[in-house]
From TrEMBL:
RNaseP catalyzes the removal of the 5'-leader sequence from pre-tRNA to produce the mature 5'-terminus. It can also cleave other RNA substrates such as 4.5S RNA. The protein component plays an auxiliary but essential role in vivo by binding to the 5'-leader sequence and broadening the substrate specificity of the ribozyme. It catalyses: Endonucleolytic cleavage of RNA, removing 5'-extranucleotides from tRNA precursor. PANTHER family: RIBONUCLEASE P PROTEIN COMPONENT. GO terms for molecular function: ribonuclease P activity. The keyword RNA-binding applies. Consists of a catalytic RNA component (M1 or rnpB) and a protein subunit. Its EC number is 3.1.26.5. Coiled coil: none annotated. This is Ribonuclease P protein component. It comes from Anoxybacillus andreesenii. Gene3D superfamilies: 3.30.230.10. Pfam families: Ribonuclease_P (PF00825). The keyword RNA-binding applies.
Amino acid sequence: MKKEYRVKKNKDFQEIFKKGKSFANRQFVVYSLKKPGQAHFRIGLSVSKRLGNAVKRNQIKRYIRQAFHELEDDLQQEYDYIIIARKPAATMDFFEIKGSLVHVLKLSKVLKVRKALSKSEQ
């Protein structure tokens, strides 16, 4: 994922936590904050040490980044997102993680719902 697509600064994380809206399911918590005039979305990831060793945490982050890359065209572009992984995410494979992210993003109404997308997910 390109540098301009990432939220890295603590100040940005805190602003999204305070002003953004949060939605959750068993595996993920997603905070989203609309940033008018922003050309594309940005994501920040948080994967706790409780989820496993460094290899496992990095694998989860790679899966989340890849899922966002595949959903790029369906996401609203003027948003910043923070994704917090919960314990069940540690035992999931890529397709389960992507499905779970699609679910929580639909709850937050930032994912454009397309019938072709939902059929391919099942």
